Structure formats: structure tokens, C-alpha cells
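The instructor's notes for this session suggest beginning with a concrete chain rather than abstract definitions. Hand out the sequence below and ask the class to guess, before any prediction is shown, which regions might be ordered.
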Amino acid sequence: MALHLSVLLLFAGVTGIHSIIQTVTKVSVKAGRSISVPCRYESQHTHHVKYLCRGSVFKSCSTEVKTNHQNSSGKFSISDDKHQRIFTVTFNNLPVGDSHYWCAVEMNDGPDIAVRFQLSVTTGSPQLSVDHQEITGFNGDYVTIHFESNISGEIQWCRLGGSCVNESGSIDGTRVTINANVTDFTVTLSGLRTESSGWYLCTKGHLQMPVHVTVKEKHTNAQSPAATAVAAEDVDVTYSTLAL
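After discussion, reveal the predicted structure:
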């Protein structure tokens, strides 16, 4: 099954060059919690300004936060990992309801490019949620990520901009195993490698949940990290801290 990503292709005249932004299609979060959404862009846009825009129509959407100007309300934040070519927008304490947002990149020689996704803020449990959106493990070990869901549909684990696994398989040399129950399921990543660090999407039905994985070198005096899932407040990363 194809990866459930929102993708916008903007063809640049007769040159044949195209620009792509990849992100989720729909995510859900409980009111009062935070969630981060990654947006992957092409290498030619590494040094361009990125921003988050709100509204169902891009031409009339309202810019909420930009990489060169942070949002003063504290509801939105943004960071740009130029090495991974992913900028991340974080939502905090948003009101209940469904809203459309756009991951956008400023273009110096033409219209900005953007892709739309939907964010649903609920009073009860989201239809798809994860214990921790930030996960840390060590080279050669494994981590198990716990999800809860009240919708039906096939489960996929995908690297943002990369390949997917349905039940079991391998992504970038790391083994992926999905174990599903009626209302919850786990994704176990074993044989972790440094190259496995980055953003992933867990898809079930029409929803996705982004998860960021950080793989560190194991030191001889480190405790065994088997089955470690670390909350964001305990992880030293450049992304916004979360605890879903």
C-alpha cells in the first residue's frame, strides 16, 4: 500500500524541475496536549524560510509562525533541521475543533509552495495516539513504541519520505515489527542504527501519528536501554518537547 502522505508537486515551467513537500494528511490530539508535525522539503529549499499557515485555502490562509519569526502567543513553534531537510511545527493548547493548516516554503522567484493537512483537537481520547512522540534508543538495541486507537484500518510504519512496513520488515537496516490488539498496538524497532534517527509516521485508517526516533551511540557505562521509550522532557533534542 502506498505511503499516506500529503504531497504537493509544483512544476517549474519547462525546466522539468519539481518541488515536493511531504507531511501527514490528518492528525488528532487531545485538548491541552501538544503535538508536532514534520514537513519534509527538497534540498534546493534548505536555506528558504519555512512557515505554518492556517485556513482551508492557501491564498487566504493566515501565517501562524515562520522560521525567521516565532509566534508570540506560544500556541505555535517551528524549527528547521537543515541536515534532515525537515521543518517541524508544534501545536500547544489549541481549542477543540478541526482546522486545516499548510506547511509552506517561501520561494524567491515565484509563488510559495505548500501542502495542506488537517488537525483535529478533541475533548476525549484521539482516534490515534502515542505514549511519547519522542523516542530514544541506542545502537544495536531496540525500542517499543505504544499506540492507542479506536478506529479500524491497516497499520503501517513509514519513514517520512521513505519506505513503509505493514506487519514486519526492515527500514534502513532496522527491523520493524507491528503487534496489534483490538484497541492498542506496538511498533518495535530492533537492531537500531544511528542512521535510523529521524521522523516516522504511524498510519492507521485515515490518520497518522508522527514519531521522532533518536539513536545514540552506546557507552560502556550506560545502562541497558532495552525497550526504552523516553518522554520528550528527558531527551536532549532540537525539536519541541512533547508529552502526549
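Then share the key points. The chain has two domains: 6-122, 128-234. Residues 6-122 form a domain with the Immunoglobulin-like fold (CATH 2.60.40.10).
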